[in-house]
Protein: FadR family transcriptional regulator
Amino acid sequence: MAVTDQAILKIKEMIVSGELSPGTRLPPEKELSESLGLSRNSLREAVKALEVIRVLDVRRGDGTYVTSLEPRLLLEALSFVVDLHQDDSVLEVFAVRRMLEPQAAALACRSITEAQLAEIEKQVADVGEDADVETLVAHDLAFHHLIAEATGNAYLTSLLDSLSSHTVRARVWRGITEGGSVARTIDEHSAILDALRGRNAELAQALMIAHVSGVEHWLRKAR
Structure:
C-alpha cells in the first residue's frame, strides 16, 4: 500500500474512532505526522485527497478541520464522478434510480408524517397540465426529493438527489419530444401520492418502478 494511502487510512481511523469529530481542528502538521509515524509530505498528500472528497477543510492561515461530514458534502465526490461520464452512463444512472427509488417510496410509506404528505400534496397540486417542460422537471426533482426525505435516511436522500440531478437532460428532452409527458407525469405522481397517503408500501414501490422505468425505456429507444 502506498504511503499516502496509509496516511489516509490513519486519518480515517482517527475520525471513525471519535478521536477527530466533525468540526474538530487537526493537530499541527509536525505533531500529527510524528504521532502517525508519517513524513510531512505523505501527510500533506493525504490531507489534499481528503479535502477533495470533502472530509477535511483546509483553511489557509487557520488550520485543517474535519468537515461536518454531512451526506450532502460526502456525496459531492460521487456527483463529480458521474459528471465525468457521458453517453450510455445516463442509462446506468437510471438503472440505479430504478433500484433505489422504489425502495425509498416503500420506506416513506412507513415513516412519512402528515406534514410531509401535505408538502408533497402541495407540490403535485401546484403543477397544472399547461406547465412547460422546465417547470415539470423542476417539479419532478422536488417530488422525488420529498419522498426520499420522508424516509428519514439522509444518505439515501443525498444519493438520490445526486443521481436524479444527472438525469435532468434526458427528462427535458423527453418532455420536448414526446407528447402528453406533462399529463402523464402528473398522473403518475398523483398515483404515487395516493399510495403514500394510504401507507401502501407495495403499491408505492410498484408505481415508482413504472414511473422511473418510463423515462429509462424511452431513452433506450431514443438512443
